[in-house]
Amino acid sequence: MTLHKGKTEIPSAREVFTDATTDNSAEAPVPVTLLTGFLGSGKTTLLSRLVRDQSMARAAIIINEFGEIGIDQLLVTKPKEDMVVLSNGCLCCAVRGELADTLALMWRERASANVPPFDKVVIETSGLADPTSIMLTVTSDEDISRRYVLDGVLTVVDSVQSLAQMDEHPEAVRQIIVADRILLTKNDIAEDGIVKKLCRRIARLNPMATLHNVEHGKIEPQLLFNVHPDGRTDSPEKVAEWLRLEEGEKACGHPYECDCHSDHDHHGRDSHAGCGHDHRHFGAAHSHDIQSYSMFYEGPVTPDGLQVWMDAIARLRGPDMLRIKGLINVEGLPVVIQAVQHLFHPPVELKEWPDNERRSRFVFITRGIGRDEIEATFSALSLHSGKDTGFMLDPQGYERFAKAMTAAL
Ligand SMILES: Nc1nc2c(ncn2[C@@H]2O[C@H](COP(=O)(O)OP(=O)(O)OP(=O)(O)O)[C@@H](O)[C@H]2O)c(=O)[nH]1
């Protein structure tokens, strides 16, 4: 299905549904699955595997990426014409209207047989999405909720990083609170103690959700569907209630090590009354000071240079590098890099270039690190190892680089 996302090409939901030929709302509504989870938790990995399964043959997928250059759609092995990529901002706020418009257009195109007759929709949110507003679009928008029902919310949770992410980012907590199912990823590289602690915290935040381990995206496709066959109903009041739960969670900072929690009911509205902590309120959906930008790099990239660059970035500024994705031209080969804070996942070489672009491209989501600062580090990407030192770098060259890097960052 080819749906262009340029604003001029997508009519508004209202325009679509006032057109009599599209008003086939007597048809059964299409179930929508919301796949959410914080930055780098493993949503695209999961979706990439899933789309190869026969049960997804009649699914339409909407991917929302935070960042100007969409990289995920290059990595999901779904035929491109079956995807709608919204890459001009966060689905939940800046382009909330656009989600409704996109769903409306998909409905119309299906009704006119311009696209394959999909019978379900999966929306992969951006990692910084507040899922509650997306859920409200599906369940409460007058036009959309007559044609679509919310089947379920699945939240992908990274076992290594998410305890820290929950402490710092309200979005990560919201994503867990609203989940029907929690998909725990990266247990293979997480310490046992951390996973147990995480499971306890999740159970306190959302005891109704079921937990499932997902390693490298391996999942039974059925897990995604038929969660609420008649549609999950999320009223604005219910969403407001979740937000109150989140305030309670955030107010105490570390709820499960916090003594005051032992006799709290986290699902009561005033569960924190009298606990003696300052209760902070979150009006904004996103953490402050977060920037997202995309960059191209035309210079040469060597395997050693890439390794050094990744090591240095992780070591020097890991906590503020919320997410890095890149498709890098390493001596002519397409190599995907992925990082979540200090954790760089092993680079993966693609079998072929996904398009005609040959410049290296990056998407960064950072806290307080600007584009210029990153640009100043790119010279490291072309470093060569010392001739007689095998894979070791020339020590003097490295020293020069490390100084430049520290100054830049
Ligand atoms: N070790 C390990 N790595 C994983 C697992 N699942 C995903 N990853 C890696 O985690 C990195 C991020 O995965 P993505 O699927 O891109 O994460 P995402 O949630 O789509 O990221 P955003 O688009 O930034 O929100 C990739 O390098 C994956 O290979 C897992 O179960 N174990």
UniProtKB/TrEMBL annotation:
CDD domains: CobW-like (cd03112). Gene3D superfamilies: CobW-like, C-terminal domain, P-loop containing nucleotide triphosphate hydrolases. It catalyses: GTP + H2O = GDP + phosphate + H(+). Signal peptide: none annotated. InterPro entries: CobW-likC_sf, CobW-like_C, CobW/HypB/UreG_nucleotide-bd, P-loop_NTPase, Zinc-reg_GTPase_activator. It holds the Pfam family cobW. It comes from the Bacteria. SUPFAM superfamilies: Hypothetical protein YjiA, C-terminal domain (SSF90002), P-loop containing nucleoside triphosphate hydrolases (SSF52540). Keywords: Chaperone, Hydrolase, Nucleotide-binding. Residues 290-382 form the CobW C-terminal domain. Belongs to the SIMIBI class G3E GTPase family. ZNG1 subfamily. Zinc chaperone that directly transfers zinc cofactor to target proteins, thereby activating them. Zinc is transferred from the CXCC motif in the GTPase domain to the zinc binding site in target proteins in a process requiring GTP hydrolysis. This is G3E family GTPase. It comes from Aquamicrobium terrae.
